[in-house]
């Protein structure tokens, strides 16, 4: 162990001032270490929560709409759906191509309980919706009775629905598409049975979309046997979504419009990106404040150890050694605080993942608890930045200590 490291360890372990203020120096040293600990822990937790939040929102939205949505640019049904789906499949990089029939309809539970919904016809529920079933079954098969309908729990609460209830769906899509007024059009009517309930905590989705078998939806909404509202394309690599959308438009030509899910829900993803940019910046100020605490702490140590510094200098310690001594002391404070902060953040993150102690209002954040996503790179970068800031903060007190004149100190002893 080098000379300056040995002395720095002694100063850190035996941090105490003169007799009249013996406990004060130890106290502010603990405060300096604690400041770094809190700053590092809060920054890591903020990064983990924001990263988890972003991943959760992305998973939910993609779960509803896949990576690329292929539709008709003229806001009309997409014809020749089977051939177009096969052409997209031949392009490679896809894991699933799902036909979707989606139109506005009215759902009535009773004379007084009625609401507008998006009737979503599909051959099978999206995987994310299937995993979010809270009651009943995810099956859309009609069986012997009325065709099944899978409804969001938020909509079910609004209309007082439960699994097994009968509902009626009204559609005027064919008449209004041909120019007939909505008020004079004769609606098409179909009775359904609530077969399942799902909950994603995306209020705008859970209150809006109900899922039915695609053949039943085509019949009710007056779609042809090979017509769809859109094709939902799930990719092997989400990062290729933009390139895939452009390639689909080029291959299929007009009137096909292909949009990534990030373009469809641009506002929602922009909100998520804003939080990713702002929250770590705000929380990161804590580490900067902790670095200033280290400056104050080391200056106090220099003041309290002035006589010792003078004696070391008179015994042959160079200015460089004295500077390295206090740089080492500052780095030790930063290292202990950073290590403790990383450990605290990791522990709190595991507790949140296990017990979900931090609740969130679902109507505002689209989830009921703060999500956590631990990324090793975050821990490495935050630890490195913390140590860099503490090293910079320790440099000023180290320069002060190195400039102490040993002759003046010895005269005062």
Would you write up a description of this structure?
The protein is elongated. It has 413 residues and is of the alpha+beta class. Helix 1 crosses helix 13 (319-355) and helix 11 runs parallel beside helix 15. Strands 2-3-8-5-7-6 form a 6-stranded mixed beta barrel. It is built from 16 helices and 10 strands. The chain is 56% helix and 17% strand.
From the structure above, extract its key features.
413 residues; 16 helices; alpha+beta
- Helix run count: 16
Can you tell me the residue ranges where pLDDT is under 50 for at least 5 consecutive residues? none
Helix fraction, binned, reads 55-70%
Output the strand order for the largest sheet. 2-3-8-5-7-6
Sheet-strand content, in percent, reads: 15-25%
Rg result:
32 Å
**Helix-and-strand structural type:** alpha+beta
Termini separation (Å)? 30 Å
Main beta-sheet strand count, sense and barrel state: 6 strands, mixed, barrel
- Sum up the overall morphology in one term: elongated
Task: Report the count of strand segments.
Answer: 10
Order of SSEs, N→C? HHEHEEHEEHEHEHEHEHEHHHHHHH
Mean pLDDT: 86
């Amino acid at each position: 162990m080098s000379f300056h490291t040995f002395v720095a360890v002694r100063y850190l372990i035996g941090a105490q001032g003169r007799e009249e203020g013996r406990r004060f120096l130890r106290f502010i040293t603990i405060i300096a270490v604690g400041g770094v600990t809190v700053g590092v822990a809060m920054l890591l937790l903020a990064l983990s929560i924001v990263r988890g939040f972003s991943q959760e929102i992305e998973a939910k939205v993609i779960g509803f709409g896949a990576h690329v949505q292929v539709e008709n640019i003229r806001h009309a049904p997409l014809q020749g759906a089977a051939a177009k789906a096969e052409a997209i499949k031949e392009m490679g990089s896809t894991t699933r191509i799902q036909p979707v029939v989606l139109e506005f309809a009215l759902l009535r539970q009773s004379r007084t309980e009625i609401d507008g919904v998006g009737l979503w016809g599909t051959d099978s529920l999206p995987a994310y919706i299937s995993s979010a079933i809270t009651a009943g079954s995810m099956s859309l098969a009609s069986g012997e009775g009325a065709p099944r309908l899978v409804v969001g729990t938020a909509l079910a609460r609004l209309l007082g629905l439960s699994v097994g209830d009968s509902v009626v769906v009204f559609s005027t899509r064919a008449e209004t598409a041909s120019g007939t007024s909505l008020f004079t059009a004769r609606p098409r009517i179909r009775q359904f049975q609530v077969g399942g309930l799902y909950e994603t905590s995306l209020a705008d989705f859970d209150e809006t979309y109900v899922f039915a078998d695609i053949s039943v939806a085509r019949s009710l909404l007056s779609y042809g046997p090979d017509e769809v509202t859109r094709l939902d394309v799930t990719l092997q690599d989400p990062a290729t979504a933009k390139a895939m959308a452009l390639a689909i438009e080029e291959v299929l030509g007009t009137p096909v419009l292909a949009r990534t899910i990030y373009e469809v829900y641009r506002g929602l993803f922009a909100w998520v990106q804003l939080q990713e940019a702002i929250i770590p910046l705000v929380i990161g100020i804590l580490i900067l404040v902790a670095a200033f605490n280290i400056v104050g702490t080391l200056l106090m140590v220099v003041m309290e150890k002035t006589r010792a510094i003078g004696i070391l200098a008179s015994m042959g310690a160079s200015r460089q050694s004295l500077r390295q001594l206090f740089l080492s002391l500052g780095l030790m404070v930063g290292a202990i605080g950073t290590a403790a902060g990383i450990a605290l953040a990791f522990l709190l993150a595991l507790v949140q993942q296990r017990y979900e102690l931090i609740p969130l209002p679902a109507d505002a954040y689209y989830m009921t608890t703060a999500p956590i996503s631990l990324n090793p790179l975050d821990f490495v970068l935050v630890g490195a930045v913390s140590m860099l800031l503490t090293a910079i903060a320790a440099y000023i007190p180290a320069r002060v200590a190195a400039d102490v004149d040993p002759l003046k100190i010895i005269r005062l002893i």
